[in-house]
Design a protein that fits this description.
about 210 residues; mainly beta; YmcC-like fold; twelve-stranded antiparallel β-barrel; 13 strands
Length: about 210
C-alpha cells in the first residue's frame, strides 16, 4: 500500500491563509461561542500568507456547492471540501505528485464548531501515475485559545485532525470564521506552518 502523499493542504477549510513557524498560539481563558459555518468566498478571492519564511498568495479559482479549488502563487492547485478539516480531494503541481482522494465523514459532524465536537472521516486515494491508499482520520475541537499570528491576536477554536500519515491543526478565528493559523506535521517529512496575512482581492464571483 502506498503512503499518503505530502499534500499542500491549503484550502481545506475554505480559508486562506496561514502561518509562520516562529509564531505561537497562546492558550488562555476565552469566552468563544460556536461557529455555525466557515466563511465563504467569491471566485477570484485572493489572500496573502506566510508559509514558514516564504510569502505566498492563494486564489479561489472555482467552486461548486460542495467544493472549492484554490491555486497558490507557486503553482500548486488543490480542490477540497467546503466543510473543511480533511485532506484534499485533488491536487497537482504541489509538493508531491498529482493525485485524487475520496473523503467521507463517517461519524459525527464538524458543525456547529464548538469545543468537544468530534468526527471521523475515511480516505480512499490514488496517484495519477499509479499507487493507492486508504485509511481513516479522527478530528476534534480540543479547546479555545488566544492565538498570536502575523495578522494580530485572535480568539480561536483549536481543531485537531490525526491519521496515520499526518497531524493537522487549525486555529479558527471566531470573528473571521476562517482559520488564521495552520500547522501540518507529516510523520516522516516534518512540519510546515502557515499564517494568514491579509486579503488582497475580495473577488467578484465571475
Amino acid at each position: 500500500m502506498t503512503k499518503l502523499p505530502y499534500l499542500c493542504l491549503v484550502a481545506l477549510v475554505s480559508v486562506v491563509a496561514v502561518a509562520w513557524q516562529t509564531t505561537s498560539a497562546k492558550a488562555t481563558e476565552t469566552t468563544l461561542t460556536e461557529i455555525s459555518q466557515l466563511m465563504t468566498f467569491n471566485v477570484g478571492y485572493q489572500a496573502s500568507y506566510k508559509k514558514d519564511d516564504d510569502d505566498e498568495t492563494l486564489t479561489l479559482v472555482s467552486q461548486t456547492d460542495a467544493t472549492e479549488t484554490w491555486k497558490r502563487s507557486d503553482g500548486c492547485t488543490t480542490t477540497s471540501l467546503k466543510i473543511g478539516f480533511s485532506p484534499n480531494l485533488k491536487w497537482s503541481g504541489c509538493e508531491d505528485k498529482a493525485g485524487t482522494q475520496k473523503i467521507e465523514i463517517v461519524k459525527g459532524k464538524p458543525y456547529p464548531l464548538k469545543v468537544g465536537n468530534k468526527w471521523r472521516y475515511s480516505v480512499n486515494g490514488k496517484y495519477n501515475s499509479g499507487g493507492n491508499w486508504k485509511g481513516t482520520g479522527n478530528c476534534q475541537v480540543s479547546q479555545s485559545e488566544r492565538s498570536t499570528t502575523v495578522s494580530g491576536e485572535h480568539d480561536t477554536l483549536k481543531v485537531e485532525c490525526k491519521d496515520k500519515w499526518v497531524n493537522r491543526t487549525w486555529y479558527v478565528s471566531l470573528e473571521l470564521r476562517q482559520w488564521v493559523r495552520f500547522v501540518r506535521t507529516h510523520y516522516k517529512k516534518g512540519t510546515m506552518v502557515w499564517e494568514f496575512v491579509k486579503v488582497v482581492n475580495e473577488g467578484d464571483g465571475s
